[in-house]
Amino acid sequence: MKALLVLALSSVCVSAFADEASTQVSHQQPVVEHYSYSSELDIAKVISMSEIPNVCEVVPARMVYEDSQGIKHTLEYRVMGNGCSNG
């Protein structure tokens, strides 16, 4: 009976640790902001920009930047690909 009680308590503890670990991982992943025309951007320094593919269609792109307070942001926006020709 004691062994069964210990087993039940240990399974509860393991699941609690798993929930805490998944919560910590979700805090480490940056939140991706989606751009719209009404977005007010505070871009002090561009850190990186994704490469635009060589296709003739609208594609998603990302920019990582720091705002004027030094906080890092990831912005996703849509852009026309580089594969279109005008002739």
UniProtKB/TrEMBL annotation:
Sorted alphabetically, the keyword list is: Signal
Signal found in the keyword field? yes
- State the superkingdom: Bacteria
Q: Does the keyword Signal apply?
A: yes
Can you name this protein? Answer: DUF2790 domain-containing protein
A matching Pfam family: DUF2790
State the signal peptide span.
1-18
Q: Which organism is it from?
A: Pseudomonas helleri
